[in-house]
Amino acid sequence: MIDLFPLADGSRPTITNGYDSLHFFMNRDPRFYRTFAFSGSRWPLKEAGNDTVWLYRWVYTGNKVAYSDGNQVSSAAVVRKMTNPGGASTVNGLAASGTDIFEYRYAELLLNIAECYAAKGDVTNAVTYLKKIRQRVAIPSANNYGIGTPASKYAAIEACLYERRVELAYEGKRYWDVQRWMLYNDDAAAGNTTCAKLGVASINGTARTGRYWQYKTTASNSADPLLSTRTTILCDPDVSAATFATQLNNLKTYFDNNLKVVGTDQPMDKDASGLPVLINFRQNYYVSGLTSTILSLNPWLLQTNGWNDYSGVPGTFDYKQ
Phi, psi (5° rounding) for residue 59? Predict the structure, then answer.
């Protein structure tokens, strides 16, 4: 997700477009800074003086590891979207300071309209509604707000799904987008070639990965080696654009002088042997079967293909017919 969000001009974060994943916090879509918190960024809390996030670790004598402010998270950024800036920093305070969210909001309505136009091959109108999304978050208007001009209906659909991943990040929408467009895998025998059509990689066969920001040298003890110098760093998206840009550049310099990126010591998801667990969403999962309880109540019901019926016999109902 960190590498997904567009650049400040709305373009995709590729090396060709100037994206540097090592300094992922530089030159990003304004939504990035409202979605994530990373080392040095301001995350307002009720109490003054407790609002700067730090996420790094250091190795000290004996190959022991310690983490800044006790933040033992396997990522260089954490989600801050939909959090309450008036929440207290205490455990009880945070637990009692939930923020209401909108299950369905205006941005999703625009995205739904864009996707409908894309699916019917009306690329122009699909882009028109995608532009409305980006205009709202102050992305520059050049090159259709960084969207460009999709070359086909399938490219327009992919652009809509990409925008949903960014605009609706962590709002519980991605699973259903993947499900309805069958993006876990392609299976030509089952009539599913969506990934190839849209030009996206299948999710099956991939695994979650983590990264740490780590102090460049081995520390002499468990004391935080950056505690005294990090006080000069603060990145606050609520200040002027020019000031914020300066703050980000200061963080970049601080990172280059003190930190490096390393992988996690263990896979994020692993089996009993410690090997990474790869995503394997099976074709029949796209359409759920009926539960044994429902089938037992009505012997005339047919089980869906890919699932066993109440007696353990493979289902025969073809939902496509």
Answer: -100, 135
